[in-house]
Amino acid sequence: DWVMDNFIDNTVKELREKIGDKHVILGLSGGVDSSVAAGLLSRAVGKQLTCVFVDQGLMRKDEGDFVEKTFTELFDMNFVRVNCGEHFMECLKGVTDPEQKRKIIGTEFYKVFWDEVRARAAEGFFAQGTIYPDRIESGKGKSDGKAQTAVIKTHHNMVEKPKDISFIDTIEPLGDLFKDEVRAVGEKLGIPHELVWRQPFPGPGLGVRIIGEVTAEKVRILQDADWVLRDEMSKNGYESNLAQFFCVLPGVNSVGVMGDHRTYDNVVVIRAVTTDDFMTADWARIPYDILAKVSNRITNECAHINRVVYDITSKPPGTVEWE
Ligand code: XMP
Predict the structure, then answer these.
(1) Pairwise CA distance, residues 197 & 225, whole Å
(2) Max CA-CA distance within the chain?
(3) From atom 9 of ligand 1, which residue's Cα is the shortest distance away?
(4) How much is the pLDDT for 148?
(5) Would you say 129 is a known binding-site residue?
(6) Where does the source fall among the domains of life (predicted)?
(7) Does 253 contact ligand 1 (Cβ within 6 A)?
(8) Ligand 1 contact via 314 beta carbon (within 6 Å)
(9) Which of the listed residues 62, 146, 281, 307 has the most CB atoms within 10 Å of its CB?
(10) CA distance 64 to 79
């Protein structure tokens, strides 16, 4: 415990010395690492910090609002939220190939992000939530699980700076920490539990959990179902047993019955896994009564869903995500 207190005190001191009276800009995704980096920098330099949060409209239900609320109400900083959901829907119109979707979402994301940064970059520092394993991964020729996954699916998580933008220096306040240490620091800084213990969430977001073309309506349908799943898992205290769980919209309609009406509406898939490293994974044995409750609630509470199925495929041969 005192180790983390010491880390925070020392890092805050070093950050203040390094930054002086200059500005710092940080890309905030709402993931664990960038959130903790934001908390540390906020404690060190307050309003000299600007966090840029690009909301591409493909996050889970209410997630963007939660991130905004957290960093505007609990921390001292300039918080810039760029809402570009509609732009992303435009870019994704008619696109069905998973790799094409990833590419478009990644490219557009950084276009929006760097445009926002460019407008504020003068005479400042650039901060990143890089942690120790990220540095090993990029330094030693990609030997760990995440990087190997990237061979199968391109992950667009690397921030590559356009040449026309320059900073005094790059700051990586978490560069020597492992994930569990980052979480411990986050808890100490008062970052909400939901962010500190957030499950991995793919950069392309719900874009790769909607099979086929992504539309605003499909995003809403999926967000509603996924919200029910998360709510029920947390009410049953089952959340922390699993590495990752979420809903997928496979783009398949099925016939159902409601009262004396025939329905023809969306199937939703529940995907839940246990794993240590995400290279291999097993489908989670969620108790039947929790699954029953989730299924009941999704079909009752969410519009345009008449069937819920459970994915019982391990990795390999399945991947965690469906795309
Ligand atoms: P797969 O589906 O490859 O997922 O078994 C392994 C882990 O990686 C996450 N994942 C991604 N993360 N961008 C990301 O940042 C991506 O394009 C991406 N695809 C998969 C996935 O959620 C799981 O944790």
Answers:
(1) 21
(2) 71
(3) 202
(4) 39
(5) no
(6) Bacteria
(7) no
(8) no
(9) 281
(10) 12
Ligand 1 contact via 46 beta carbon (within 6 Å): no
Q: What are the strands of the beta sheet with 170-171, ordered from one edge? A: 78-83, 49-55, 23-27, 124-127, 170-171
| φ and ψ at residue 23, rounded to 5 degrees | -100, 155
Q: 277 CB under 6 A from ligand 1?
A: no
Cα distance between residue 105 and residue 99, in whole Å: 10
The model's pLDDT over 126-173, given as tens digits with 9 standing for 90+, comes to 999 999 998 887 654 433 344 434 334 444 455 578 889 999 999 999
82 membership: H or E segment, kind and range: strand 78-83
Is 29 marked as binding a ligand? yes
Q: What is the pTM of this model?
A: 0.92
Atom of ligand 1 at shortest range from CA of 146: 8
Strand 124-127 to 23-27 pairing: parallel
What is the CATH code for 209-310? 3.30.300.10
Spatial CB neighbours of 116, under 8 Å, sequence gap ≥ 6: 52, 54, 80, 82
What is the fold, at CATH topology level, of the domain defined by 2-196?
Rossmann fold (3.40.50)
Is any ligand 1 atom within 6 A of the Cβ of residue 230?
no
| The two structure tokens encoding residue 237 | 């205290």
Domain ranges for the chain, please list them: 2-196, 209-310
